[in-house]
Predict the structure.
Amino acid sequence: MIELRHVQKHFGDLHVLKDINLKVEKGEVVVLIGPSGSGKSTLCRTINRLETIDSGEILIDGKPLPQEGKELAATRAEIGMVFQSFNLFAHKTILDNVTMGPVEVLHRDRKEAEAEAMELLRRVGVAEQAKKVPAQLSGGQQQRVAIARSLAMHPKAMLFDEPTSALDPEMINEVLDVMVGLAREGMTMVVVTHEMSFARRVSDRVEFMADGQILEEGDPNEFFDHPKTERAREFLESIKGH
Amino acid sequence: MRDALFEAPGPKTKRKILVGTIISSIAIAAILVWVVLRLYQMGQFDASYWYFFGQWSTWRFLLQGLAGTAEVAVTAGVIALALGILFMFGRISKNRVVSGIFRVIINFFRGIPSLLLIYFFFLVIPSYGIKMPAFWMLTLPISLTASGVLAEVFRAGVNAVPKGQREAALSLGMTEGKVLRKIILPQAIRYVIPSLISQLVVVVKDTSVAYVVSFPDLLQNARVLISNYDSLVSVYFVVAIIYILINYAINELAVRMARQSGTKVVTRAQENPV
Amino acid sequence: MSLQQLFSTYGGMYVKAYAATLEMTVVSFVGAMVLALLVTIARVCPISPLRRLGDFYVQVFRNVATISLLIIFYYAFPYLGIVWNEMTCVIVTTILVAASFGSENFMSGINTIGVGQIEAARSLGLSFGQILRQVVIPQALRSAVLPMTNLLVAVMLTTAIGSQVPLNPQELTGLVSYINTMSVGGILPFAVSALLYAGTAFLIGLAGNAIDKRVRILR
């Protein structure tokens, strides 16, 4: 479904993605893990071209990711994205945040879109907040709305860029629970996260990145219990303390 | 941020941007050529309009004017700072009557044009037998209108100081007045330094009506040059550029100080209109 | 001169002067908003000559002394074969200066939105036009309410430069100097104009606050 071939990217002198090859099959949940600055967020963001690449190929359903225009917008509409900082539209109500995509992009009837949005909000547990604006919600609630906003587009895959990193500890689980539910339903997911429990419970594969390279990949339990590389061992040691 | 509005262009978009760049460059060049041509046709490049800019006496005279502008601007700026802080203290007073009075004073001076107040000092005050040098007939009205604005700038700064600071200082046993002077005000001023500097630009611009009271500032001296050399367009053009350069320099200073200070910056946008 | 005398002699002129001030204020403000929008579009567009032109425009017109600009239009432009009447000169000057500040207000309005929301809109598949209409413009406009209110007051105060050219009818500031040259006016003629200015500014401010309260975006 998602395939990256020999992807290279520089930020000025910094080589942030070094010959990345990655394949995500339909229904697979892939977790990208690694120290900060390892390029995992950048990698995640290249998949819907929020970051451009210098060379290599990105294929979505076997077709190259379009570079601009309607084709790019149409591809993005099919891939959900959840950000670290939620990025809800500050001037719109929670309900309008969720209906914006379906109404504006898919040209759905507003009434229908609202009914479905309410259903989604109920599913992520924030239906009572529908008439409020984002700033009135807690971080965890906002992030669940952001997930509902993506789901309203009926995406065939979803990207999560550190979805719990900006949350207070007691709110992390409410977001992770929603994500676990999605994974169980068979959603194709690429997740950048430090949440080992999540990776162990639901991911099919872990990709360990450092210095712009994928150093290690494989079964999550295998990776967390018996990391093969020194870098991975050091990294796991450093996050285990918490 | 303005770069974030547009995403990294794809090949088609790149081509469109290139075409746009070429067309707009040509259009801008064409306008410039038209302006220069127009000036040329109207004989404005004639040496008689420009030769005196090659003479030191011309520049000395303009610099004298500029010194007058600076004198008024700096004096008015200092007075406005002091009055602005005073008005702000009145405005945030816990005594409702005091704060009401200062609210009226501040809104009055923010709400009238400095030119009107200059006419007041120039025409009205002398009619009551009070003699005042031209310098003060210009400087005082400019200070007063600026002080109304600055009072609100300071108030926005004071409001931006975190509440915890006051509580922490009070719990150390400081009195309210001391907290305000020693803890709140120094931080508030740091927040608004860029706004203060941009207000200096307004003050400099306000001084340019000095000719109303016959005070020799940059523009007034320029008018003398014009009558001496009968070359209005060239002199006004040069003077306008001098104003732009001075104020540009002041604004750049504000930007740089905002960047260097590293503290948060309270901008004019955060002020209340009333 | 008593207030009664003042109004019986000059009352009609005050009404006209106030109307002139208001008219120039409204026309200039509307013109400035349109121009500010165009300048802002130029400043954010990806075509670099237009960007630089927009930036240059703002630097020139927010830094030039307003009076010197008026004098150039009124006294110097005729030498270049361009003759505008007094009111046009005042309005054009005010528009040009106010548009530079207006564009700065729009720019800081855009800056408050943040890259994240735009990226989120992009990820939903919204087109550039939709992002502008749905996300950028509504938020930029709302956070520009207070600064634009302040600008409207500033525009009104700027129209006082009309006193420096033989405007007919005169505006509020020019009228004060006129009355004082015609008769010994004392403080009253000044006070009437000042109160009209300050009162109008106060009302504009109240209206701006009320609008801001209704549309303010919680962050």
